[in-house]
Amino acid sequence: MEYAPETDVLFRSGGWDDAHTIELFERLFDWCDRRQIDRLLTYNGAWFDGRHLLNWAQELDDADGELRRRVENLFKNHVDVALAAADEYADELRDNQEILPDWKAYDIAGIDNDSVWYDDYTFPENYLAGIDGPSVQGKHIGQVLGEKYVDNVEAEIEATSVHRELTRLLENYCTSDVADLIELYSTLGGASLDDEYRRPAEEIV
Fold first, then answer.
1. Tell me, what DSSP letter sits at residue 191?
2. What's the distance, CA 149 to chain centroid?
3. SS3 label, residue 17
4. Nearest to 145 by CA among 131, 134, 157
5. What span, in angstroms and rounded, lies between the C-alpha atoms of 17 and 11?
6. Other CB atoms closer than 10 Å to residue 107's CB: what's the count?
7. What is the pLDDT along the chain (205 residues), one digit of tens a residue?
């Protein structure tokens, strides 16, 4: 039976003000607090996800440092699957390459990681100007799509068809790797990876 994990995508509910970022953190903490979480899996979280979340929390924190402490707690049992993939598939690394792109790791592991294609969504002409390639990539979120989403929220046009389509694209992209990351973790060894590839907050700089 194909594994279908529970997924939720938490979207920013306002503009770029710190208050909206803090509110998003609070919703993340609440989501986690309502579940029994044994470990946090990421792909390259020691270099990207963890670093950014910890830095944002540090910048937003009040005098007692509560926000950063709560993020650190999320990463208490963090396992970076990218590090395990880099060791398992070391022969595939290019010169000066420390980890494999996630799509490459999935391909070698025989995991069908479906891309999210722009052609499957309907946007106005030139709406995606500045994006290279036919499928959604992580860098597109930071370069174009994330800003468009927040701009739409600030403009209070969430009910428009273009914003609903953008939301659908982002939801599909964010959820596309969840089950596949769990499968990659299992393929590479599952819980046997935890000790060697555990990267808590204090090891993320």
1. G
2. 16
3. coil
4. 131
5. 14
6. 15
7. 456 788 999 999 999 999 999 999 999 999 999 999 999 999 999 999 999 999 999 999 876 789 999 999 999 999 999 999 999 999 999 988 999 999 999 999 999 988 899 999 999 999 999 899 999 988 899 899 999 999 999 999 999 999 999 999 999 999 887 889 999 999 999 999 999 999 999 999 7
